[in-house]
Amino acid sequence: MKYILPFILFVCSSNIIKAQDTLSMRSGENILVKVIEVGATEVKYKKQDNLNGPLFSILKSDLLMIKYENGTSEKFSKEEKTIIKVKSTHNRLIWGIVGVGLLIGLGSLFKGGGLFPTGGH
Predict the structure, then answer these.
(1) Domain match, 50 and 29 both
(2) Confidence band, pLDDT 50/70/90 cuts, at residue 77
């Protein structure tokens, strides 16, 4: 009889303490979530307090670590953040060069009298 009350408290508390994943941000914030997918550059998750709600995503470069409900963790280094920045800068540089080339080409097209200048101008 004296073990019934602790047993009831244990059962009730186990329903309150739900299994959850934790996202540790570089800013120092911890978010309780259910991780849905870990991609190459981002993590998709649902907030623990609204598992039927919307799907959120965050860049891996903004995360320090994911601690999963089973106790395992996945850490993210600063190098991953640097690689993403380099790729982004590289893409902007390429599109900048392509854009300048198109502008030069269009400028010469209009100044030269069209696609096939006749030479009589």
Answers:
(1) yes
(2) confident
